[in-house]
Task: structure prediction
Amino acid sequence: MRKENTMNERIAEVLPRFAALPRAELGFFPTPLMRLDRLSAQLGVSLYIKRDDFTGMSLFGGNKMRKLEFLLGEAKARGCEYAVTYGATQSNHAMETATACRRMGIKPILYLTAVVPPEEGDTRANLLLDRILDAEIHIVPIEPGETEAEAEARSFVMGAARAAELTLGGRPCIDIPMGGASPIGSVGFALGYVELAQQLGELGLTADAIFHATGTGGTLAGLAAGRKLLYDGTKIVSIAVSPKDPVAYPQRVAELGTAVLRLLGSPLSLDPTMDICLDTHYYLPGYEQPSEAASEAIRLLAREEGLFLDPVYTGKAFAGMLDHIRTGRIAQGETVVFWHTGGATALFAEPEILGKVF
Result:
């Protein structure tokens, strides 16, 4: 009981830190935390799912709305009329940014790298939603001999130039990084961690581990910062969905999380070796390239619990979590939370992305 009261006191102490930052009301919070009874019985753990696929603000929402509340709150405070951001052609973040911008009366501009080039006349999934939203869309092809990272870097230069052009012309534009992975954006996931801690406390639970998909690192940085603020001992296992340098990536994420803590007025810092647990074993054959393990995870959750994952992010993260449980790295009887970051529109994307899910 004393430990629960201590956590409640910590939560009460940190919440005012978030209230001091500009924030747009875009999402539906708190998102549900639900127990997966059938899979818990099968796997021998107490498995919960954090339904950030319900974050909103549309049926096609996902976790990025947590970041966009703070990013677009800042944009409105600065009087921005436009917002530029980046992603792949089927980017969840880009679509959600366009959605949130329309809600805020801001004009969205998207620079989308064609990791899987869209077919002319066959616009699907998030790219279809981007067009319905009438976002200004720039498709950035990966040129012969160019890597995906090089094409992305080229898109960042193009976007920054467009943002500068608009701002210099008297139409202020915010330049939002890919995935919303900035200190102000990642504040949204530090608050999300506090939200989860509240929900677990109401159920009388303590999580042993949290699993989630990590790409640009903004979600991970925020979660790790939130855990640090609460002095919580729960392990966060971050399943990479694209290639990551095992040294440079944790260092960068730790720096981003530390910047989040500074924004919230905390002197604490993240240590890349102590606070970041990155698992890079489940992203192959590559980003936006399906794997059989992810397809199996999609089928399993759908057929046992009636819930949907996607082949790019949550399918691979759930597959990684299943492997951790099945191989004993998560002990029987432990309490595990899977953070569902959304993205099920990828089930309606190009066949190269979807893979064989049935």
In short: The longest strand covers residues 82-88.
